[in-house]
């Protein structure tokens, strides 16, 4: 049976694993939007999908994904980053993925909403439970930055 101490250790390890994996995924998605295709390339992509205000959303999404991912890995501004990334995933699901479905049909191009929803669930976990003690916020500063 787990003791309270081991429950805390397990929770902190689980939270850091979620933060790091989520952060790496979002950095991998935000990096090309900022540094490969650029904001204009991503804006054109969003425009083609029918996203309103594609120039504005291109900037916001690229910055939130890249820097939010970094914040999650470091465990700083974790709840803010998680909130913004969760909103990002909700908007992506509603504007783009809901048309495709949960899993894209084999005979049609595109990706379903399953990844977006899993990323949303992970971001929601950090938003609700915080970064855990293996973070800059709680491990070094001894408080969450809000």
Average residue pLDDT: 92
* Annotation, overall tally of beta strands: 0
Order of helices and strands: HHHHHH
Query: How many helix segments?
Result: 6
Overall shape: it is: globular
Radius of gyration: 17 Å
- Could you give the distance between the termini? 35 Å
Main sheet specs: none
What portion of the residues fall into strands of 2 or more residues? under 5%
Helix content: over 70%
Low-confidence blocks of residues: none
**What is the domain total for the residues?**
1
Helix vs. strand class: mainly alpha
Description of the molecule:
This protein is mainly α and 146 residues long. The chain has one domain (8-140). It contains 6 helices and no strands. The chain has helices at residues 4-36, 38-48, 54-74, 78-95, 114-129, 136-140. Helix 4 runs antiparallel to helix 5 (114-129). The longest helix is centred in the N-terminal third of the chain and has 33 residues, at 4-36. The termini are far apart.
């Amino acid at each position: 049976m787990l003791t309270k101490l081991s429950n805390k250790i397990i929770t902190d390890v689980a939270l850091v694993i979620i933060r790091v994996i989520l952060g790496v995924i979002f950095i991998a998605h935000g990096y090309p939007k900022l540094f490969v295709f650029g904001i204009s390339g991503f804006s054109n992509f969003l425009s083609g999908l029918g996203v309103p205000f594609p120039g504005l959303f291109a900037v916001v999404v690229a910055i939130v994904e890249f820097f939010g991912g970094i914040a999650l890995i470091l465990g700083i501004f974790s709840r803010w980053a998680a909130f913004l990334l969760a909103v990002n995933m909700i908007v992506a699901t509603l504007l783009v993925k809901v048309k495709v479905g949960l899993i894209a049909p084999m005979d049609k191009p595109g990706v379903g909403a399953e990844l977006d929803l899993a990323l949303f669930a992970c971001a929601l976990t950090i938003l609700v439970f915080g970064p855990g003690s293996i973070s800059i916020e709680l491990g070094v500063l001894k408080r969450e930055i809000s």
